[in-house]
Amino acid sequence: MSEFKGRSLKTILKTSTAAGLAAVMMVTAAPFTAVSALAAPVEVNAPQVPSFGDVVSAVLPAVVSVRVQSNIQPASNDESGYSFNFGGRSFEDLPDDHPLKRFFREFGGPGMDGQQERGPRAERGPHSEGRLRPTSQGSGFFISEDGYIVTNNHVIDDGAAFTIVMNDGKEYDAKLVGKDSRTDLALLKVDAKDVKFTYVKFADDEKVRVGDWVVAVGNPFGLGGTVTAGIISARGRNIGSGPYDDYLQIDAAVNRGNSGGPGFNLNGEVVGINTAIFSPSGGNVGIAFAIPASVAKDVIEKLKDTGTVSRGWLGVQIQPVTKDIADSLGLAEDSGALVVAPQAGSPGEKAGIKQGDVVTAVNGDPVKDPRDLARRIAAFAPDSTVDVALWRDGKATEVKVTLGELPAEQSASVDTQNDAAPAPEAEQELSSLGLSVRPAEDGKGLAIVDVNPDSDAADKGLKAGETITSVNNQEVSSAADVQKVIDQAKKDGRTRALFQVESENGSRFVALPINQG
């Protein structure tokens, strides 16, 4: 005890603490000994996404590259004496990044799909002399072991010679069996003795769902067999390419050269044929369009049998039935196809279909819209007799139509001539509609002189210079005629009236509210 005398408590605590820490370090030194790390790779034990490898290995031998050659005329001087010769080379010999090629590609190429693989077309006559030059490259696939190949019409269009390149590099000459520009499909045939080709079949459209996997196989940019995957994003897309638009939309990467290539489901069946892309830049942005298997199957069968596709023809100009139009006609639903005008001498006119009729069904199957009607009629062979259900004058009726054959080039427009010059002394007001009109000079209808910009008529697109020919399918020649029809419609409980309007672009129906005033 005496030895601690004169030492402060603080000094004693410091000594004890230091000793305690030293003891702890001695006791715990062993666990902190460095140990060498094991040289092992990272392993992840997690659920694995199914591979597309089995599908691809099975279908790849059936997918081919399609190379097209066309008969190109030699360069010659035009009447002015100017020679279209680019430094001793033809247009096709210019590099792809040449300013002239970029110019013609931008301003002379296809519309929105960015899919055109052809070079500039040379004018060719039936007796032109020239040489075969490569002009196009796309994709295709075998549908039979004896060599039938499906591709896009725009891939082979104007081609004079066709070469099929297999996945293993083998090449075969092919001949054109038939093509159909309306659905952008074409059928080629390879004749090779003692060769059986690997082929694929079309899927059942009824089982194709939005969200299903799809594997696109093709030859983008001439790279050879390339595979991309995605899902079906939508069905029934209309991209404005023709009256039979009914595309599948997929998000698999599809680019130039994929045209004509197949999109497969996980069973290796073709659900669609890649034909177009939406692309502001010309490259893939995840929106591609494919011809559904059901459409392709029907067209290809006809091309195989006859080399052409014959379609039924009704011969009526039609437009959609909007909610306003349905209300003006007393229809419960805004579906069907409104007849703007039957074409003179057409099967529809001969059967008694009239302007203002709404086609609601064909052979008992409901018609959704004009595109649906066009597809249904086209599916019948010419000379077929069909039952066409109509909504006319507020009640249902039916006519039998013997279909004709759709002409090669069928125009839906109706040429009209309207005199837009005003005649102030004859102007009449339809103030409740926001219109000023006058009798048309030919005595058929009312010429629109002025449209109130704040009116429903203006919102519906009516313009000065157009002509109102009928209201609720009754011909009118004065404002009084219009008012009489409107008054009757109000008595019938209608809130809108159906106006038929003629313009330089043709005829159309517009439904206008009639409950003002």
From TrEMBL:
Question: Can you give the residue ranges of the PDZ domain?
Answer: 315-369, 413-504
Chain spans, region Disordered: 105-139, 408-431
From what organism does this protein derive? Peteryoungia aggregata LMG 23059
Q: Name one Pfam family in it.
A: PDZ_2
Which spans does this entry mark as compositional bias, Polar residues?
410-419
Record's NCBIfam families? degP_htrA_DO (TIGR02037)
What is one GO biological process annotated to this record?
proteolysis
* Documented EC number(s): 3.4.21.107
Q: Which domain of life is it from?
A: Bacteria
Family per record: Belongs to the peptidase S1C family.
Do you know which InterPro entries this protein is assigned to?
PDZ, PDZ_sf, Pept_S1C_Do, Peptidase_S1_PA, Peptidase_S1C
Keyword Signal: yes or no? yes
GO MF annotation terms: peptidase activity
Task: Report the SMART domains cross-referenced here.
Answer: PDZ
Signal sequence range: 1-39
Keywords for this protein: Hydrolase, Protease, Repeat, Serine protease, Signal
Start-end of Basic and acidic residues biased regions: 115-132
What is the name listed in the Swiss-Prot or TrEMBL entry for this protein? Serine protease Do
Q: What class of enzyme is it?
A: hydrolase
